[in-house]
Amino acid sequence: MIAVVYSGSRLADWRLAEKGKIVAGFKTMGINPHHNDATKIEQLLHKSNTLINYAEKIKRIYFFGAGASSAENEEIVSKAFNSFFRFGKVFVGHDMKAAALATCGDHSGLVGIIGSGSNAAYYNGKKVEQNNYGLGYILADEGSANWLGRKLLQDYITQTMPAELVRKFDEKYPLDIKIILDRVYRQANPVLFLSSFSDFVFENREHDYMVQMISRGFTMLFEKYFVPLREKHKEVNVNFTGSVAFDYQDLLAEVAVAHGFKVGIVIREPIHNLLNYYLNKNK
Fold first, then answer.
1. Distance between CA 1 and CA 20 in Å, rounded?
2. Dmax over Cα atoms in the chain, in whole Å?
3. Of 23, 180, 197, 260, which one's alpha carbon is 20 to 30 angstroms from that of 82?
4. 263: in domain
């Protein structure tokens, strides 16, 4: 039996499969070594009855997640998974590798993630080439749910959000500046708080304010990351994974064309393609 896991900051998507068939599919809380040490990750695994039931049967675990971008962070995840899956071999990779495998397979291409966070890279068909783009939810994540949440709260607090949206926001969220600042600067996992406002963005996606904000985020993503990647690799096709990329494909395509790119494959959740990839590898 194999387990394939794709984790964002909010949720981790799991698929367990045996002899080419899915045995179980479910979600847990997100697993991010930036926010969780090995002990906390193992505690999270123990909260899933499905994992407890199948732990000893799983022989290979393929984990991909935000934050697993360094040897140190990979070790945090590996330590927790090796302790829990005592008879399994654990493979840990960054979420960019997952996006590359899910959209490009064993072929080269430009790849982007726009979900809870955002990132960009060139995939040579075997590995994702290293770059300095994965700067996290404070220094980067342009266009992502986290970035949209930040912008939304900034405009709400500074009273630069359109009045009709302020009324809707107040009806939906019992917040004031004190609560917002506490959640962002004092509470754990502020990225989860920030990205949670993506629901409000989606509910009001037809409003000009939202259209402009989303397009601005995508524009920053292309200008900061994809344009430099194209200059080096001469690629114009870009593939994406992530909820924000999927939900706003029309705006993403417009921004891409404006910068001389063409959007190829866009998938919300890479877990399905990842599972198929590893099922083929484990025949």
1. 9
2. 58
3. 23
4. no
Query: Which residue from 153, 248, 243 is spatially nearest to 194, judged by alpha carbons?
Result: 153
The 10 Å CB-count burial string (b at 16+, else e) for 221-254 is bbeebbeebbeeeebeebbbbbbbbbbbeebbeb
Q: What angle do CA 149, 154, 156 make, to 5 degrees?
A: 95
Separation CA 153–CA 185 (nearest Å): 13
Determine the residue type at 241. Answer: T
Burial level of 67, CB count in 10 A (0-12/13-18/19+)?
buried
**Are β-strands 11-18 and 21-29 bridged in parallel, bridged antiparallel, or unpaired?**
antiparallel
Q: Is 61 helix (H, G, I), strand (E, B) or coil?
A: strand
> Which pTM does this prediction carry?
0.90
Six-digit token pair at 148? 């949209």
Domain housing 24: 2-98+271-281
Whether the CB-CB separation of 278 and 62 falls below 8 Å is answered with yes
| Domain at 14, CATH number | 3.30.420.40
Considering the domain boundaries, does residue 250 fall inside one?
Answer: no
116-147 tens-digit pLDDT: 889 999 999 999 998 888 787 888 899 999 99
Query: 197-220: per-residue pLDDT in tens?
Result: 999 999 999 999 999 999 999 999
Distance CA 167, CA 186 (A): 27
pLDDT, the chain, mean: 94
- Which residue matches tokens 């040490």? 37
